[in-house]
Write a structure and sequence with these properties.
Layout: H1 7-28, E1 34-53, E2 67-87, E3 91-114, E4 118-127, E5 132-142, E6 144-148, E7 151-177, E8 181-207, E9 211-229, E10 242-259, E11 266-279, E12 282-287, E13 293-315
């Protein structure tokens, strides 16, 4: 079965985002006042990433899983910031970005001779540390505000565009199948990019004790691209040993609390984010040292992440 082409969806969402931008700037000219908020946060993030390839391009030859790499519990120290602008006519713009330092993590590289991950003939358990992740997102929407007494609830449909990057390094290899021990000199890299449009909705409501609660859900359509440098493989080209491409989707859930601004317009913000991304089957293109190129099927990629953050928000 042919995989669906998500590029038209991404293009339509990008067009919708540009149209929203145009409407927002048009609307701002007619707004007497608009609210601007800026926040800066620090937190802890943990990522899991997994991908596997087949032994041929169709994915039907034995083994149907030839090689699989898994990164487990990447421990990340993260800084993030955001800007929100909302006009008195309800038009809304936001931009967010974050950067994280990978402090530690585990990697496993397994190869198989049998279908469905059987007859494992090679396994290395490795370290991952010292590299980075970063994300950015732009979105536009319209805020609907409902007031009951002295309480307010806001509903905010959103259309956006985002990019998410993971720069991963594999070091300190230990061959566990067969159990031959450490492999000196491993310093391989694997760099990913998830990029595309998204649709979402956010709910913001007052709670007792002058605290606002929010919940946001985003559904993303993404073009996935990865590039690797397997430094110990002399039969591979360097610095680009292979690259992978696929269409993917992701869901992002965010919940948190923001205190009502004090007299100096500062608030405290606490947030929890969870995201899960996956791809359809794609392509794995290998570049050999002799100049030839090999192709096989990328079965799928899966990425899970959660982050806890604490920060300050300023009402400008």
């Amino acid at each position: 079965m042919d995989k669906p082409n998500l590029k038209p969806i991404t293009c339509r969402l990008t067009a919708a985002l540009l149209l929203s931008l145009s409407l927002w700037f048009t609307g701002v000219r007619d707004v007497e006042a608009f609210e601007t908020k800026f926040d800066l946060n620090a937190g802890y993030r943990a990522d899991d990433l997994n991908w596997n390839i087949a032994s041929d391009l169709s994915g039907t030859a034995t083994p149907n899983v030839l090689s699989e790499l898994t990164w487990h519990t990447l421990r990340i120290a993260q800084l993030s910031g955001g800007l929100q602008m909302t006009g008195s006519n309800g038009l809304h713009f936001r931009a967010t970005a974050d950067y994280g330092w990978i402090r530690s993590g585990d990697n496993q590289d397994s190869d198989y001779l049998g279908d469905n991950r059987t007859l494992e003939f090679s396994r290395t358990n490795n370290d991952t540390s010292g590299d980075e992740v970063w994300d950015m997102s732009l979105a536009f929407g319209y805020r609907f505000r409902y007031i009951q007494g002295n309480k307010a609830t806001c509903v905010l449909p959103l259309v956006g565009y985002s990019r998410h990057v993971q720069n991963l390094r594999i070091t300190d290899a230990n061959q566990t199948i067969p159990a031959t021990g450490p492999i000196p000199g491993l310093d391989s890299t694997y760099q990913t990019r998830w990029e595309g449009g998204w649709l979402g909705v956010e709910f913001l409501t007052d709670t007792p004790n002058d605290v606002n609660a929010y919940f946001r859900w985003e559904h993303h359509w993404a073009d996935y691209y990865a590039e690797a440098n397997w430094n110990l493989r002399n039969d591979f080209e360097h610095p680009r040993s292979f690259e992978q491409e696929a269409n993917g989707t992701g869901n992002v859930l965010s919940v948190g609390f923001v205190t009502v601004p004090n007299t100096n317009r500062w608030s405290i913000r606490v947030g929890l984010d969870y995201q899960r991304w996956t791809t359809d089957p794609g392509t794995n293109r290998v570049y050999f040292a002799d100049g030839t190129i090999g192709m096989t099927r990328l079965n799928n990629v899966e990425w899970k992440s959660w982050a806890l953050s604490l920060g300050l928000q300023r009402l400008m």
